[in-house]
């Protein structure tokens, strides 16, 4: 069979189902558009079968009449002008491809009601399956945009039937989607309602709502009581300190380093009350923890959190532990255009992100202890060190180890505790030094021939605490 050019409407349909593969992805695209328009209130209405009608209303800036003729056309967007803008679009906008409305118009009936603050009345636009505005009208409406989608997948009988069969599950997924956005952007009011039914959900933040307020309302007061707010110390300006305390909305200034804003379980959290899964976002862009970067960040968090728990051999977590993590990123440090759903990002230096996240977690979660009160951590993996040599037992029955440790980060993080180690050092910052350990009875560590020593907590990383002995 020879190669032929497919008809334009066929090409539109084939490409549209890649962008909008289910009712949930349609809602996500419309929600992203609303937030990009500066909306602080977004309401979602959906029919019980999830395909007859989906409506997303917002109080954003609205669409200018000068842009009406470009709405619904593929490859048209207000988010970027060329591929070079990808360096900054991720931190400024959730959408950027210019395909969502065009894809929706190819798969369903679309009507848009929109008004800017400069207009006295709203304009109603109805679109053909080719993406062109086929009819216009006017009505009284507040500033913002309402997008109403009808008969989704009507031209795709198999997909239409599948969406109806999964309606109950998709409505539950919609609730989960909105929970992700509420925790990523705590100052935005979100709600959804099933038309003609009793199912509904809403997140209504108070004025000046903080991340803790969002966790209390979305996840419950019982879980919030088991958690704490922690942020990494990389601040850009004085007012950024206030931003990271609230973690409420995307700041206008991008940091020069990765900043981790986390609401996560305390070291004494009741594990039965915190296993409600992770919520991870990058520049307030919710990600899926089942793939890519977020999956790796989830694994790192669980490694250190679980390492701080004292669990019986029979004890198991009933689910994934809760964490709300948002990473604020330097400009141009990741690519958000990884896959159609935009649930993943590609960091230019993923290894650096994971390493800094590990350092962040090590300062929060100490290593677990056994019943004897001693550290259960393998000292060869702590404090960025490695065992160079393990000698035999001396005449007192103790074991001597020689350890090289990279001090390029300084000795900024020593903690207190029964696991402290006195170590003979050459304390020149930025160099390698040798630590000669002698393990005595009772699992007590002593410095051999120590004069200048550093005190190191085996359950954590190096910290700012040193002393001199004679």
Total helical elements: 11
Sheet with most strands: strand arrangement? 5-4-3-6-2-1-7-8
By helix and strand content, what is the structural category? alpha+beta
Helix content: 25-40%
Strand content: 25-35%
Q: What is the CA–CA distance across the termini?
A: 89 Å
Mean pLDDT: 74
Low-confidence runs (pLDDT<50, min 5 residues)? 234-249, 369-470
The tally of beta strands, per DSSP, is 22
Shape: globular
What is the C-alpha radius of gyration, as a whole number of Å? 27 Å
Largest sheet data: 8 strands, mixed
Brief summary:
With 470 residues, the protein is α+β, with helices and mostly antiparallel strands. It has helices at 8-19, 23-36, 86-92, 100-107, 157-165, 167-184, 211-219, 221-224, 238-246, 292-307, 350-362, and strands at residues 41-46, 53-58, 109-115, 122-127, 133-139, 144-150, 189-194, 200-203, 227-231, 259-265, 278-282, 285-286, 323-328, 334-335, 346-347, 385-393, 399-406, 420-424, 432-439, 445-447, 452-457, 466-468. It is built from eleven helices and 22 strands.
How would you explain this protein's 3D organization?
The chain has helices at residues 8-19, 23-36, 86-92, 100-107, 157-165, 167-184, 211-219, 221-224, 238-246, 292-307, 350-362, and strands at 41-46, 53-58, 109-115, 122-127, 133-139, 144-150, 189-194, 200-203, 227-231, 259-265, 278-282, 285-286, 323-328, 334-335, 346-347, 385-393, 399-406, 420-424, 432-439, 445-447, 452-457, 466-468. The chain contains 11 helices and 22 strands. The protein is an alpha+beta fold. The strands form 5 sheets. It has an 8-stranded mixed sheet with strand order 5-4-3-6-2-1-7-8. Strands 9-10-13-11-12 form a 5-stranded mixed sheet, with helices on both faces. It is 25% helix and 26% strand. Strand 19 and strand 20 form a beta hairpin.
């Amino acid at each position: 069979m020879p190669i032929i050019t497919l008809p334009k409407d066929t090409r539109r349909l084939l490409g549209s189902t890649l962008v909008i593969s289910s009712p949930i992805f349609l809602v996500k695209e419309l929600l992203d558009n609303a937030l990009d328009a500066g909306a602080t209130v977004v309401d979602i209405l959906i029919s019980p079968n999830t395909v007859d009608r989906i409506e997303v209303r917002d109080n954003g800036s609205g669409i200018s009449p000068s842009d009406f003729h470009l709405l619904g056309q593929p490859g048209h967007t207000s988010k970027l002008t060329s591929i070079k803008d990808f360096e900054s679009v991720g931190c400024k906008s959730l959408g950027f491809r210019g395909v969502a409305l065009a894809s929706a118009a190819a798969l369903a009936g679309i009507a848009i009601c929109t008004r800017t603050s400069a207009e006295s009345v709203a304009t109603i636009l109805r679109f053909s399956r080719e993406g062109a505005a086929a009819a216009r009208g006017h009505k009284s409406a507040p500033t913002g945009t309402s997008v109403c989608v009808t008969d989704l997948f009507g031209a795709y009988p198999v997909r239409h039937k599948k969406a109806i069969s999964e309606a109950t599950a998709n409505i539950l997924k919609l609730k989960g989607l909105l929970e992700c956005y509420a925790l990523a952007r705590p100052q935005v009011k979100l709600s959804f309602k099933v038309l003609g039914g009793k199912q509904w959900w809403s997140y209504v933040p108070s004025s000046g709502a903080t991340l803790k307020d969002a966790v209390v309302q979305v996840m419950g007061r019982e879980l919030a009581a088991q958690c704490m707010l922690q942020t990494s110390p990389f601040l850009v300006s004085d007012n950024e300190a206030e931003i990271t305390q609230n973690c409420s909305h995307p700041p206008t200034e991008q940091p020069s380093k990765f900043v981790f804003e986390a609401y996560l379980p305390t070291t004494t959290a009741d594990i039965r009350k915190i296993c409600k899964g992770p919520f991870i976002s990058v520049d307030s862009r919710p990600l899926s923890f089942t793939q890519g970067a977020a999956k790796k960040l989830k694994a790192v968090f669980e490694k250190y959190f679980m390492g701080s728990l004292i669990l019986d051999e029979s004890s198991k977590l009933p689910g994934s532990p809760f964490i709300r993590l948002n990473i604020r990123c330097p400009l141009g440090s990741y690519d958000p255009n990884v896959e159609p759903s935009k649930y993943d990002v590609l960091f230019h230096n993923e290894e650096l992100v994971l390493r800094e996240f590990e350092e962040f977690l090590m300062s929060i979660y100490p290593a677990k202890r056994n019943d004897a009160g001693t550290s259960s951590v393998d000292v060869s993996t702590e404090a960025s060190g490695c065992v160079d040599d393990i000698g035999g037992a001396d005449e007192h029955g103790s074991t001597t180890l020689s350890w090289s440790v990279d001090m390029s980060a300084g000795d900024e993080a020593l903690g207190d505790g029964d696991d402290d180690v006195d170590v003979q050092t050459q304390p020149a910052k930025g160099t390698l030094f040798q630590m000669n350990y002698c393990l005595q009875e009772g699992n007590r560590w002593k410095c051999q021939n120590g004069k200048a020593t550093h005190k190191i907590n085996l359950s954590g990383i190096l910290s700012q605490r040193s002393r001199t002995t004679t």
